[in-house]
Amino acid sequence: MAQLLRRKPQAVLGVATGSTPLPVYEALAAKVRSGAVDVSRARIAQLDEYVGLPAGHPESYREVLRRQVLEPLGLGTDSFLGPDGAAEDVQAEAEAYERTLAEAGGVDLQLLGIGTDGHIAFNEPCSSLSSRTRIKTLTEQTRKDNARFFGGDIAQVPTHVITQGIGTILDARHVVLMATGESKAEAVAAAVEGPVAAVCPASALQLHRHATVVVDEAAASKLKHADYFRHVYANKPAWQGL
Question: Which InterPro entries match (predicted)?
Fold first, then answer.
């Protein structure tokens, strides 16, 4: 991200919520504080948002990103691009956000996590691989996984979300998927080595012209070609970067 910002100070950075990317945001904030990188012209693009949470709700992703990304980077809301999950016309809001991303010139770098079922953003299994930003219904498993952020009460987790579609995500110039822990190992293997199939939305990244997958050993434990991937990474030309 720092390298991109040095090349393109006005870059659009697509960010994801969750614990996995937090060290990335913290490291970027440290570079900003040290003066090593300038983010003043950058724009931060939201990946997805719950539908129905009131403005300012601490678990709305807009609020989470304000705390975890915008404030540490010293950016205001004028640098933020994201849909309003409390909008009266959710579908119109989704379509408007799709247009906003296009008018901003598209996402330059998109960070992604991956669900245990292979979902990316809130594109649940069997989502269209060409989908655009739209409303989606969460699976019960996703709601259970996210209940920890709502005091363990699944009833407090919204059923619907606005999410960038898989086709929207694939429009980003560079996509970086991050995963840690053994619980993500099967999803990572399906995404990287399995067939491209809607049942594993992350497998669509195999079609992307510049996709990078960063995982720890536990998350890589189901990869059949892990040794080859290590060899490729160890022998990447320095100019190639990620």
Answer: Glc/Gal-6P_isomerase, Glucosamine6P_isomerase, Glucosamine6P_isomerase_CS, NagB/RpiA_transferase-like
Q: Which of 48, 93, 98, 108 is an active site residue?
A: 48
Identify the sign of the CA torsion 138, 128, 205, 111.
negative
124 assigned to active site = yes
Question: Does the annotation mark 153 as catalytic?
Answer: no
Among residues 49, 98, 108, 124, the one annotated as catalytic is 124
| Long-range interactions of 61-64: CB distance < 8 A, separation 24+ | 61/17, 61/85, 64/17
Cβ–Cβ under 8 Å, residues 127 and 193: no
Count of C-beta atoms within a 10 Å radius of residue 137: 12
* DSSP secondary structure letters along 195-238: ---TTSGGGGGGG-SSEEEEE-TTTTTT-TTHHHHHHHHHT--G
Model confidence, pTM? 0.94
Query: Is 119 known to be catalytic?
Result: yes
Quick check: is 171 catalytic?
Answer: no
CA angle 118, 124, 199 (to 5 degrees): 60
For 176-208, write each residue's pLDDT tens digit: 999 999 999 999 999 999 999 999 999 999 999
| Main-chain dihedrals φ then ψ at residue 170, nearest 5 degrees | -70, -15
